[in-house]
Each structure stands twice: as structure tokens, then as C-alpha cells.
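Q: Okay, next protein. This is CsbD family protein from Rhizobium calliandrae. I've checked the sequence twice, so it should be correct. Can you predict the 3D structure?
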Amino acid sequence: MDWNRVEGNWKQAKGKIKEQWGKLTDDDLDQIAGKRDQLEGKIQERYGIQKDRVRSDIDDWCRRQTW
């Protein structure tokens, strides 16, 4: 799935993102508002993961989603 679909379905995606990355708060997700670069940054901040790994993890997560 491409990121445009995630962004377009952000309200639904927020719950699925919280399941995957539980350290993200509702406020974090509201601020991110579907912007992938902001999601990457927030995951890096909360989990201490390198940017390349975060990008790969998000890509993997997107591929597993069904809408």
C-alpha cells in the first residue's frame, strides 16, 4: 500500500499505528496528521531506532495493511 492511502485513511490508520508502535500517544498521532516524515521522526524519538530502520519498518507495516 502506498502512503497516500494511509494519509487518506488517517483516522483508521491511527489505531493500527498505535497497535504497532504503542509508545506513540494520541497527541503524537494528531500532530503527525498523516505526514510520513513526521511519523518517522516521532518513532525515532520514542524508540531510539535509526532512520533507515524506521523507514523500513514503516514500509513493512504499510505492505501488511488491508483497507
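A: Here is a summary of the prediction. The mean pLDDT is 95. The radius of gyration is 11 Å.
Q: Noted. On to the next one.
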